[in-house]
């Protein structure tokens, strides 16, 4: 039987990461096999790691493997970064690979696989010129971005829907 395409989901330390299971479920419904790579900061209480491991049937990767250890994930057929933080977007664009999540992102474009990003960055941070430059640089590498999402509360106290499925729609875009 042909294997399902493998999707790397990179999770950063933004509050909305608490709902990342929605993205995983949506991807699985669209016939992706999913492995999660989280930043070390995201592993620090931003989402339910046990629930995500149960859902994907695989350990979450966050630390580098040791030299003799085989890679626990197949090579990606596509990569999604959701939520993407200000910090990770800027480090990725600068070519910094000091975490497994950043290393995964830095090599993804070179692998030629589609990459979709859903940023969650407050307006004040998004106004920083370094962030604007990072978006320009990553777009120039073929990375696909969802519309800006600031994550702020609405007048009724709720938050706008993050729209996790947007990431999967971006992967399908020609
Ligand atoms: C509760 C909480 C929510 C946060 N939400 C965001 C966010 O939505 N977007 C963002 O860019 N940073 C957010 N941050 C700050 C990041 O966690 C911080 O910049 C961190 O260094 C990001 O690390 P990472 O990019 O490696 O995941 C938040 C921090 C906390 C404590």
UniProtKB/TrEMBL annotation:
<dbReference type="Pfam" id="PF02441">
    <property type="entry name" value="Flavoprotein"/>
</dbReference>
<protein>
    <submittedName>
        <fullName>Flavoprotein</fullName>
    </submittedName>
</protein>
<dbReference type="GO" id="GO:0010181">
    <property type="term" value="F:FMN binding"/>
</dbReference>
<dbReference type="InterPro" id="IPR003382">
    <property type="entry name" value="Flavoprotein"/>
</dbReference>
<dbReference type="GO" id="GO:0071513">
    <property type="term" value="C:phosphopantothenoylcysteine decarboxylase complex"/>
</dbReference>
<feature type="domain" description="Flavoprotein">
    <location>
        <begin position="9"/>
        <end position="102"/>
    </location>
</feature>
<dbReference type="GO" id="GO:0015937">
    <property type="term" value="P:coenzyme A biosynthetic process"/>
</dbReference>
<dbReference type="GO" id="GO:0004633">
    <property type="term" value="F:phosphopantothenoylcysteine decarboxylase activity"/>
</dbReference>
<dbReference type="InterPro" id="IPR036551">
    <property type="entry name" value="Flavin_trans-like"/>
</dbReference>
């Amino acid at each position: 039987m042909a294997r399902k395409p493998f999707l790397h989901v990179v999770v950063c330390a933004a509050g909305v990461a608490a709902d990342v299971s929605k993205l995983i479920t949506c991807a699985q419904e669209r016939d992706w096999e999913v492995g999660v790579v989280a930043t070390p900061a995201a592993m620090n209480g931003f989402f339910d790691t046990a629930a995500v491991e149960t859902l994907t049937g695989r350990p979450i990767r966050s630390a580098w493997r040791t030299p003799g250890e085989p890679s626990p994930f197949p090579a990606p057929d596509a990569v999604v970064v959701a939520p993407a933080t200000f910090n990770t977007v800027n480090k990725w664009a600068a070519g910094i690979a000091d975490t497994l999540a950043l290393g995964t992102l830095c090599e993804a474009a070179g692998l030629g696989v589609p990459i979709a990003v859903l940023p969650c960055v407050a307006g004040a941070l998004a106004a920083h010129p370094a962030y604007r430059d990072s978006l320009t640089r990553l777009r120039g590498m073929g990375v696909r971005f969802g519309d800006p999402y600031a994550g702020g509360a609405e007048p009724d106290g709720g938050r706008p829907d993050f729209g996790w499925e947007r990431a999967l729609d971006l992967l399908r875009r020609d």
